[in-house]
């Protein structure tokens, strides 16, 4: 872990607009989620924009739900949302995707940022950072597959 973040990057053979469209469609998140925890959206699945709030049905041993708020949004370049659960009592982690056109496609960097997470102290001292890094790697593999369809 680098401070409060973990980042993984990969070049995906697709235009930034195609990748961004997948990221900005919450109904597609379960398609490319590498952790297996994202089950689907809760509520409407309209394209995300700055300030959008969207719910996700999750399962990590037990079923639960999250509320996510888009906090960074630059079309075809960057999108990030902050995740909370249980009425805002837990969470605060940020999931960020940055896209950069490069030779051969788009460099995609996914970052897990716990700088504002209420459980940061516990998260950093657990096995979760290592698991998260492996899950991000799988997410980017699955995102590459989804972008090629």
Quick tags:
globular; 149 residues; seven-stranded antiparallel beta sheet; alpha+beta
Radius of gyration: 14 Å
State the helicity in percent bands.
Answer: 10-25%
Our estimate of the beta-strand percent is 35-45%
How is the biggest beta sheet arranged?
7 strands, antiparallel
**SSE string, helix = H, strand = E?**
EHHEEEEEEHH
Shape: globular
Average of the residue pLDDT scores: 93
Which runs of at least 5 residues are low in confidence (pLDDT < 50)? none
What is the number of helices? 4
* Strand segment tally: 7
Distance between the termini: 33 Å
Question: Structural class of the helices, strands and pairings?
Answer: alpha+beta
Q: What is the subunit arrangement here?
A: single chain
As laid out across the biggest beta sheet, the strand order is 1-7-6-5-4-3-2
Structural summary, described in words:
The protein has a 7-stranded antiparallel beta sheet, covered by helices on one side. The model has no long low-confidence stretch (mean pLDDT about 95). The protein has 4 helices and 7 strands; from the N terminus they run βααββββββαα. The N and C termini lie far apart (about 35 Å). By secondary structure, it is an alpha+beta fold. The longest helix is centred in the C-terminal third of the chain and has 20 residues, at about 130-145.
